[in-house]
Amino acid sequence: MPTPQPTATPEPTGTPTAIPTLAPTPVRRATGNLKPFSPRRWEAPIVVRNSLVDDSDDPHVGSDVYVGADTFISWAVTNEGPHSINQRFFVDLYFNGAVVQRWSNESGVSRKGAYVTDGWAGLSTVIRPYSGKHTLKLVVDPTDLVRETDETDNTFEMTFDWMEPFGSLPPAVPLDIFDLSPKTPEGWSNAIVANAIIDATSSGNLSVGLQTYISYAFTNLGAADVPEDILVPVYLYFDDVLVNIEYWRGLPAAGTVVRSSWPGLYDAVHVSEGRHRLRIDIDPINQVLEIDEANNALEVEFVWGPPVAAPDTP
């Protein structure tokens, strides 16, 4: 996942430009059936190990893993439906109930084919590792892009123990001197803005026939800088469906992060006419220990209209 750098309070932008109209969405037909599965010589659809497997055909069996040492996660998905799936879909990995990584498959999966990630090593970079028993869950097609013959078998869940190395000391707990919160930048109508015009600072012109650009901003109200070695995740939801995760590296005290004109909504979820909610949730996995953990989210309601011509720009 990208790790953009935090920016200063936004400067005035140039003249916004409109997005071309979108092609009509084809009628969805059930073609395949995505589900987690255990490839040959795998012990489960998710395998957690302390070392990489030398060859993809070698046995994939779990092993003891330790806090502060390498932890490799492998997972596998197959298509058990009657036809190939020839479209994008996502796969989410949850850690103790929160999404920590999303993969995008752009080409689909053939009938009886497989989509595999072997030896992902990023878990300890996106959460604060700590010893104990933890739950991993794999969710296939979490945004329901693919119409399947069976929508009930898209998940697999397992537990593993992250052990403390012998003789190690518990990690130091940061002081609660940070406070992450949504912020409305000067000139913006809200901390979340959705518009069919790039770099808009107020919401409007939303239509299912036009591209939607989503911008958001947040700040650190605390007294100290969030260090550069801490990744701050921001989750973006559309009607309670997670559509995007972005990580931001560090954040100075009183600094502002501005995410301008994210264009990926229609790639992540089906959007219908009517009222919908957008929500940002800053650091939902508690990478940063804060003074106030209750002010990290903001939800705003918007209305998407029927297909229309692209709006004029100022």
Question: SSE layout and pairings?
Answer:
Layout: E1 34-36, E2 46-49, E3 65-66, E4 72-79, E5 89-95, E6 98-105, E7 114-120, H1 123-126, E8 132-140, E9 155-163, E10 180-182, E11 192-195, E12 213-220, E13 226-238, E14 241-251, E15 256-262, H2 265-268, E16 274-282, E17 297-304
Parallel strand pairs: 3-9
Antiparallel strand pairs: 1-4, 2-4, 4-7, 5-6, 5-8, 8-9, 10-12, 11-12, 12-15, 13-14, 13-16, 16-17
Task: Explain the overall architecture.
By secondary structure, this protein is mostly beta strands. The chain has 2 domains: 34-163, Immunoglobulins (Immunoglobulin-like); 180-304, Sandwich (Immunoglobulin-like), CATH 2.60.40. Helices cover 3% and strands 38% of the residues. The chain has 2 helices and 17 strands. It has helices at 123-126, 265-268, and strands at 34-36, 46-49, 65-66, 72-79, 89-95, 98-105, 114-120, 132-140, 155-163, 180-182, 192-195, 213-220, 226-238, 241-251, 256-262, 274-282, 297-304. A 5-stranded mixed β-sheet has the order 3-9-8-5-6, with no helix packed on it. Strands 1, 2, 4 and 7 form a 4-stranded antiparallel β-sheet that branches. Strands 10, 11, 12 and 15 form a 4-stranded antiparallel β-sheet that branches. A hairpin with a 2-residue loop joins β13 (226-238) and β14 (241-251). The longest helix is centred in the middle third of the chain and has 4 residues, at 123-126. The two termini are 34 Å apart.
